[in-house]
Write a structure and sequence with these properties.
The chain is an alpha+beta fold. The chain has a 30-stranded mixed beta sheet that branches. Helix 10 (499-505) runs antiparallel to helix 11 (509-518). It is elongated, with a radius of gyration of 40 Å.
Length: 657
């Protein structure tokens, strides 16, 4: 083929090659020079995309460069991004000597809704004002992300280095106002990150100092694995925090490991800091280890003291994809309910005028916010009163699942006896449903009840057993008790009772005076049982009898937890002859806040009136109405019924393990 025949095909290829070479040369020159003529187009493009005015300010020729090979690499002597129109801040970001690197894969992912990842950000100085209004508008939300949802994620950083940074953050939605000074100094192999943060959170002062030192990661990949030494100290409100350890994934502290200390004058100090209502307690101090990987936290509490309580435990908290789960073990040498008891309900009890039962509403939404599975094993639980002995030990399993809180496998020991059972609070509906099934046995009352009698026998002794099966519903403790329904049974075996108390209950003056002179002794309780029925918050004894060789005491009436009133009557029926008595039923009436104890006036009045009339005839005759020959038939009838109930209870009694 001749040269002339090939020339039409050769010429276009030559032209294409020349054009390609010229294009590559232009790109090479543009990359070498940093595309300075793109300043204005890039400003306009970013301003339109972000709906913020973006300016690259050149202090001298060549101070602005942008390169596109291998990602976007931008450098500007000064960068200024304006605040949105509704903001009062002078700008969103203002930086000096700013260098920014972005990977194309990160830009592509961000365009598909994932958080923006910045490969590297360096600046000689950076001043940022971040704001969020009460309606949810935030200055860092741009045109492509105008959602007011709190879950909006911040950009993530690989390498991050600022010699002198100032960040101001104001969030009206969460009541936060913070100012942070940030600086990164030193060489890449030995750098120091310093953050000093001050401000307020929920009207509580905040002051935190953070220091991270070590090898500074130079890329996002290196930032995932490079560990740095980290120390944090500060105070939020009245609570103080210290942490010393290491961190990797430093752009969001995705991994942490170290030791921590937390202290304050009261648990209320933590509640004030995080916006949760917690009760006042004695001063607390907690120390232990912390290990965080992503959304999973593992905390080992070596020592937690609240007042006189000494606790410890191991816990794991995982955010997961559904509800967060808290699991682990709570143990310790000693727990005083006076120290931590108010915290168990999560809210301060609301006392109502003239009432004693707490009326504060439960936070049922909090029960549905997370799940829990915690084993409890505490050596000694002090019940918070000098009148009762401690539970030693107490073991149980606490579970919270789908809004249902349960304490199962309860096993406690006290005074040679035991307590077992379970409690459940169902918070899935508008009203909490509460139920309890508790059994106890072989509890020696002379040991469990701290009876201050050093020179006399105890008022009551014996082995107490029984069972309580009750339910209730409502929005508060008072509501649940006001709707209480169920049955409570108790029996005292091998019982003995103060002779003086029995005679005083029967107003046997002669016997009581004799015991005061000769000294108190104990009477054997042939039978002591109680069977109490609860319905609509009203407790009525079906049977409540104490039977001794001298007397039989029965109690009747009602106690209303709904109205917080009581109307009980105790009647003592003597079995023996007594020359000087004023026997009359004992009445306990009034409110739980102000109970009134009195004697039924009718029987006493008749005896006193008869005595006065006979005294007109003969002074000795005045004693005749006060002579009591006893009512052994009625006493024996009650005693027989008491014994029958006691035998029935003994047949059903659960043996101790």
């Amino acid at each position: 083929m001749s040269d002339t025949s090939r020339s039409p095909w050769r010429r276009p290829r030559v032209v294409a090659i020349i054009v390609l070479l010229l294009l590559l040369t232009a790109i090479a020159i543009g990359e070498w020079r940093g595309w300075p003529f793109l300043v204005s187009p890039l400003q306009n493009l970013l301003s339109g995309q972000l709906e913020r005015r973006v300016r690259f300010i050149n202090d001298a020729p060549g101070t602005f460069t942008v390169r596109f090979i291998g990602g976007v690499h931008l450098h500007s002597a000064r960068l200024d991004i304006s605040s949105p129109p509704w903001s009062t801040a002078p700008h969103l970001v203002s930086g000096r000597d700013v260098s920014l690197r972005l990977r194309y894969v990160d830009l592509w992912r961000a365009s598909r809704g994932q958080p923006l990842r910045i490969e590297s950000l360096q600046a000689g100085a950076l001043d940022a004002h971040l704001e969020r209004l009460a309606d949810g508008r935030a200055s860092w939300q741009f045109a492509a992300d105008s959602s007011s949802d709190d879950t909006t994620e911040w950009p993530r950083f690989g390498a991050f280095r600022i010699h002198d940074g100032l960040l101001r953050y104001s969030d009206l939605r969460h009541d936060v106002t913070l100012e942070a000074r940030v600086s990164v100094t030193g060489e890449q192999a030995d750098s120091l990150l310093e953050v000093d943060l001050t401000g307020a959170y929920r009207d509580q002062p905040v002051q935190i100092a953070l220091r991270a030192s070590g090898t500074r990661p130079e890329s996002a990949t290196a930032a995932q694995t490079t560990a740095v030494a980290l120390t944090v100290s500060g105070a939020v409100g009245r609570a103080t925090l210290e942490f010393a350890g290491s961190a990797s994934k430093v752009q969001d502290f995705g991994q942490l490991a170290g030791r921590f200390k937390l202290a304050g004058p009261s648990l209320a100090a933590i509640g004030d800091a995080i916006g949760v209502t917690l009760p006042g307690t004695p001063p607390f101090r907690i120390s232990g280890t912390l290990d965080k990987t992503g959304g999973d936290w593992q905390v080992g509490v070596d020592d937690a003291s609240v007042g006189s309580s000494q606790l410890q435990g191991d816990f794991r908290y995982g955010a997961g994809t559904g509800r967060p789960l808290l699991s682990g073990r709570l143990g310790g040498a000693r727990l005083l309910l006076a120290d931590l008891g108010p915290a168990l309900g999560g809210a301060r009890p609301v006392r109502r005028e003239g009432k004693v039962l707490p009326g504060g509403d439960f936070d049922l939404a909090a029960l549905r916010a997370m799940d829990a599975d915690v084993a409890i094993d505490i050596a000694a639980v002090d019940l918070g009163t000098p009148l009762l002995g401690a539970l030693q030990p107490l073991r149980a399993q606490l579970k919270l699942a789908d809004g249902v809180l349960s304490i199962s496998g309860l096993d406690a020991r006290t005074a040679d006896g035991w307590l077992r059972g379970g409690i459940e609070l169902d918070g899935r509906g508008d009203l909490a449903l509460w139920s309890a099934d508790l059994r106890w046995g072989d509890v020696r009352l002379e040991q469990w009840l701290r009876q201050a009698r050093t020179d006399a026998p105890p008022y009551v002794a014996g082995r107490l057993g029984g069972r309580a099966t009750v339910t209730g519903q409502g929005r508060s403790t008072a509501d649940i008790l006001a709707s209480l329904k169920g049955r409570v049974q108790a029996q005292l075996r091998d019982g003995r009772m103060s002779h003086l108390v029995v005679e005083a209950a029967g107003l046997d003056l002669a016997e009581a005076l004799g015991l005061l002179v000769s000294g108190d002794s104990t009477l054997r309780l042939d039978c002591a049982v109680a069977d109490i029925q609860a319905d609509a918050g009203v407790l009525r004894p079906q049977v409540m009898v104490l039977d001794t060789e001298d007397s039989t005491v029965s109690i009747s009436g009602s106690l209303s937890l709904a109205a917080e009133t009581l109307d009980l009557t105790a009647i003592a029926l003597p079995k023996d002859f007594s020359p000087l008595t004023l026997r009359s039923p004992l009445r306990v009436q009034g409110s739980l806040a102000d109970p009134q104890v009195s004697l039924q006036k009718g029987p006493i009045g008749m005896k006193v009136a008869g005595s006065a009339l006979l005294a007109l005839l003969n002074p000795l005759a005045a004693l005749l109405p006060l002579v009591d020959t006893g009512n052994s038939d009625e006493a024996d009838r009650l005693a027989a019924g008491c014994a029958a109930l006691a035998r029935r209870g003994a047949e059903k009694r659960v043996p101790a393990k």
